[in-house]
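Dear support,

I submitted the protein below through the web form. The confirmation email said the job was done, but the results page showed an empty box. After a refresh the structure appeared. I'm attaching both so you can tell me whether what I see now is the final result or a partial one.
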Amino acid sequence: MIRPPTAAQRRVIDAADPVTGRLKGTDAQLAALVKRGLAFRHPRPPHDHFLTPAGHRVRETPTDRAVEAAPAPAASDAGVFAARVGGEESPETGPARLREVHSAWQGLLELRRMTNQGGATDRPCAWERTHLVRAAALALEAAGHRPATGDGDGYRVRATPQPEAIAVHEPDLTALRACAATLEKAGWQVSEHTEPRTRARYVLASPRRI
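What the results page shows now:
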Protein backbone atom coordinates (compact mmCIF):
# COMPACT_ATOMS: atom_id res chain seq x y z
CA MET A 1 0.00 0.00 0.00
CA ILE A 2 1.24 3.48 -0.86
CA ARG A 3 0.19 6.98 0.03
CA PRO A 4 -2.63 8.19 -2.23
CA PRO A 5 -1.79 10.97 -4.70
CA THR A 6 -2.21 14.49 -3.43
CA ALA A 7 -5.26 16.41 -4.56
CA ALA A 8 -3.18 18.23 -7.18
CA GLN A 9 -1.65 14.98 -8.43
CA ARG A 10 -5.06 13.35 -8.58
CA ARG A 11 -6.35 16.21 -10.72
CA VAL A 12 -3.44 15.63 -13.10
CA ILE A 13 -4.31 11.92 -13.29
CA ASP A 14 -8.01 12.57 -13.80
CA ALA A 15 -7.27 15.06 -16.60
CA ALA A 16 -5.09 12.61 -18.59
CA ASP A 17 -6.03 11.86 -22.17
CA PRO A 18 -8.67 9.09 -22.01
CA VAL A 19 -7.01 6.98 -24.72
CA THR A 20 -3.27 7.61 -24.62
CA GLY A 21 -3.01 8.59 -20.96
CA ARG A 22 -0.94 11.67 -21.84
CA LEU A 23 -0.44 13.91 -18.80
CA LYS A 24 -0.10 17.62 -18.25
CA GLY A 25 1.16 19.10 -15.01
CA THR A 26 4.08 20.76 -13.28
CA ASP A 27 7.51 19.12 -13.42
CA ALA A 28 7.25 18.30 -9.71
CA GLN A 29 3.83 16.65 -10.10
CA LEU A 30 4.91 14.57 -13.08
CA ALA A 31 8.16 13.53 -11.40
CA ALA A 32 6.25 12.43 -8.30
CA LEU A 33 3.86 10.32 -10.40
CA VAL A 34 6.81 8.69 -12.16
CA LYS A 35 8.43 7.91 -8.81
CA ARG A 36 5.24 6.18 -7.65
CA GLY A 37 5.01 4.10 -10.83
CA LEU A 38 1.83 5.88 -11.95
CA ALA A 39 3.42 7.60 -14.97
CA PHE A 40 6.40 7.30 -17.26
CA ARG A 41 8.42 9.85 -19.21
CA HIS A 42 8.68 9.19 -22.93
CA PRO A 43 12.34 8.84 -23.95
CA ARG A 44 11.94 10.86 -27.16
CA PRO A 45 11.40 14.63 -27.46
CA PRO A 46 9.24 16.37 -26.39
CA HIS A 47 9.47 13.86 -23.48
CA ASP A 48 5.77 13.87 -22.65
CA HIS A 49 4.50 11.94 -19.65
CA PHE A 50 1.90 9.16 -19.83
CA LEU A 51 -0.05 7.09 -17.33
CA THR A 52 1.13 3.57 -16.65
CA PRO A 53 -1.49 0.79 -16.28
CA ALA A 54 -1.35 1.44 -12.52
CA GLY A 55 -2.03 5.12 -13.16
CA HIS A 56 -5.04 4.24 -15.29
CA ARG A 57 -6.38 2.08 -12.47
CA VAL A 58 -6.05 4.96 -10.02
CA ARG A 59 -8.05 7.21 -12.31
CA GLU A 60 -10.79 4.60 -12.72
CA THR A 61 -11.37 4.11 -8.99
CA PRO A 62 -12.89 6.40 -6.35
CA THR A 63 -10.41 8.67 -4.67
CA ASP A 64 -10.70 6.94 -1.32
CA ARG A 65 -9.75 3.60 -2.91
CA ALA A 66 -6.88 4.83 -5.05
CA VAL A 67 -4.27 3.52 -2.65
CA GLU A 68 -5.61 -0.03 -2.89
CA ALA A 69 -6.11 0.15 -6.65
CA ALA A 70 -2.56 1.15 -7.49
CA PRO A 71 0.04 -0.58 -5.34
CA ALA A 72 3.65 0.26 -6.03
CA PRO A 73 4.82 -2.05 -8.82
CA ALA A 74 7.64 -4.45 -8.01
CA ALA A 75 10.86 -3.82 -9.88
CA SER A 76 10.54 -7.18 -11.62
CA ASP A 77 7.15 -6.47 -13.18
CA ALA A 78 6.83 -2.70 -13.34
CA GLY A 79 5.26 -1.70 -16.61
CA VAL A 80 4.74 -5.29 -17.77
CA PHE A 81 2.08 -5.73 -20.43
CA ALA A 82 1.02 -9.09 -21.82
CA ALA A 83 -0.87 -9.31 -25.08
CA ARG A 84 -3.52 -12.02 -25.29
CA VAL A 85 -2.30 -15.05 -27.21
CA GLY A 86 -5.69 -16.80 -27.01
CA GLY A 87 -6.97 -19.38 -24.57
CA GLU A 88 -6.87 -17.20 -21.46
CA GLU A 89 -9.66 -17.81 -18.96
CA SER A 90 -11.95 -14.84 -18.24
CA PRO A 91 -9.64 -12.15 -19.65
CA GLU A 92 -10.10 -8.51 -18.63
CA THR A 93 -12.16 -6.49 -21.09
CA GLY A 94 -13.45 -2.95 -21.31
CA PRO A 95 -12.07 0.55 -21.86
CA ALA A 96 -9.08 0.06 -19.55
CA ARG A 97 -7.86 -2.92 -21.54
CA LEU A 98 -8.37 -1.06 -24.83
CA ARG A 99 -6.23 1.79 -23.56
CA GLU A 100 -3.50 -0.59 -22.41
CA VAL A 101 -3.45 -2.34 -25.79
CA HIS A 102 -3.39 0.98 -27.65
CA SER A 103 -0.54 2.30 -25.50
CA ALA A 104 1.42 -0.95 -25.86
CA TRP A 105 1.08 -0.92 -29.64
CA GLN A 106 2.10 2.74 -29.89
CA GLY A 107 5.06 1.96 -27.65
CA LEU A 108 6.07 -0.92 -29.91
CA LEU A 109 5.91 1.31 -32.97
CA GLU A 110 8.13 3.80 -31.17
CA LEU A 111 10.55 0.99 -30.30
CA ARG A 112 10.69 0.09 -33.98
CA ARG A 113 11.40 3.69 -34.87
CA MET A 114 14.21 3.93 -32.33
CA THR A 115 15.89 0.58 -33.07
CA ASN A 116 15.26 -0.26 -36.74
CA GLN A 117 17.69 1.03 -39.33
CA GLY A 118 16.42 4.25 -40.79
CA GLY A 119 13.72 4.49 -38.12
CA ALA A 120 11.43 2.13 -40.07
CA THR A 121 8.14 1.32 -38.34
CA ASP A 122 6.76 -0.95 -41.06
CA ARG A 123 8.69 -4.04 -40.00
CA PRO A 124 9.32 -5.81 -36.68
CA CYS A 125 12.29 -4.88 -34.51
CA ALA A 126 14.79 -7.05 -32.67
CA TRP A 127 12.61 -7.23 -29.55
CA GLU A 128 9.76 -8.73 -31.56
CA ARG A 129 12.07 -11.42 -32.98
CA THR A 130 12.86 -12.56 -29.45
CA HIS A 131 9.22 -12.38 -28.32
CA LEU A 132 7.47 -13.77 -31.39
CA VAL A 133 4.24 -14.99 -29.83
CA ARG A 134 3.64 -11.88 -27.73
CA ALA A 135 4.57 -9.53 -30.57
CA ALA A 136 2.21 -11.19 -33.05
CA ALA A 137 -0.56 -11.35 -30.46
CA LEU A 138 -0.18 -7.63 -29.74
CA ALA A 139 -0.48 -6.80 -33.44
CA LEU A 140 -3.69 -8.84 -33.63
CA GLU A 141 -5.23 -7.53 -30.42
CA ALA A 142 -4.36 -3.92 -31.30
CA ALA A 143 -6.14 -4.36 -34.64
CA GLY A 144 -9.33 -5.51 -32.89
CA HIS A 145 -9.20 -9.25 -33.52
CA ARG A 146 -10.85 -11.43 -30.89
CA PRO A 147 -8.64 -13.83 -28.93
CA ALA A 148 -10.04 -17.20 -27.94
CA THR A 149 -11.31 -17.42 -24.37
CA GLY A 150 -10.77 -20.80 -22.75
CA ASP A 151 -11.84 -23.40 -25.29
CA GLY A 152 -13.98 -20.94 -27.29
CA ASP A 153 -13.54 -19.57 -30.78
CA GLY A 154 -11.09 -16.80 -31.61
CA TYR A 155 -7.45 -16.55 -32.55
CA ARG A 156 -4.66 -18.46 -30.81
CA VAL A 157 -1.02 -17.57 -31.37
CA ARG A 158 1.41 -20.39 -30.71
CA ALA A 159 5.13 -21.05 -31.02
CA THR A 160 6.36 -23.49 -33.67
CA PRO A 161 9.49 -25.63 -34.12
CA GLN A 162 10.51 -23.38 -36.97
CA PRO A 163 12.94 -20.57 -36.15
CA GLU A 164 11.35 -17.10 -36.15
CA ALA A 165 7.88 -18.43 -36.95
CA ILE A 166 4.61 -18.54 -35.06
CA ALA A 167 1.31 -20.17 -35.95
CA VAL A 168 -2.09 -18.50 -35.78
CA HIS A 169 -5.08 -20.80 -35.37
CA GLU A 170 -8.64 -19.56 -35.88
CA PRO A 171 -11.55 -21.91 -36.66
CA ASP A 172 -13.33 -19.29 -38.77
CA LEU A 173 -11.51 -19.14 -42.11
CA THR A 174 -12.58 -15.58 -42.84
CA ALA A 175 -11.31 -14.45 -39.44
CA LEU A 176 -8.08 -16.41 -39.94
CA ARG A 177 -7.40 -14.66 -43.23
CA ALA A 178 -8.19 -11.31 -41.63
CA CYS A 179 -5.55 -12.11 -38.97
CA ALA A 180 -3.08 -12.93 -41.73
CA ALA A 181 -3.80 -9.61 -43.44
CA THR A 182 -3.25 -7.73 -40.16
CA LEU A 183 0.11 -9.42 -39.54
CA GLU A 184 1.20 -8.77 -43.11
CA LYS A 185 0.32 -5.08 -42.71
CA ALA A 186 2.29 -5.06 -39.43
CA GLY A 187 5.42 -6.27 -41.23
CA TRP A 188 5.17 -10.06 -40.97
CA GLN A 189 5.55 -12.57 -43.77
CA VAL A 190 2.54 -14.90 -43.75
CA SER A 191 1.49 -18.10 -45.47
CA GLU A 192 -1.60 -20.28 -45.11
CA HIS A 193 -1.33 -24.02 -44.49
CA THR A 194 -3.46 -27.09 -43.72
CA GLU A 195 -3.04 -29.44 -40.78
CA PRO A 196 -2.44 -32.91 -42.32
CA ARG A 197 -4.47 -34.75 -39.67
CA THR A 198 -7.41 -32.41 -39.00
CA ARG A 199 -7.41 -30.52 -42.32
CA ALA A 200 -7.80 -27.31 -40.33
CA ARG A 201 -6.32 -24.20 -41.89
CA TYR A 202 -3.74 -22.12 -40.02
CA VAL A 203 -1.29 -19.31 -40.74
CA LEU A 204 2.47 -19.30 -40.31
CA ALA A 205 4.02 -15.87 -39.77
CA SER A 206 7.58 -14.63 -39.35
CA PRO A 207 8.98 -11.11 -38.94
CA ARG A 208 9.95 -9.44 -42.19
CA ARG A 209 13.54 -8.17 -42.23
CA ILE A 210 13.43 -5.93 -45.30
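Response: this is the final, complete result; the empty box was a page-load delay. Confidence is low (pLDDT under 50) at residues 64-79.
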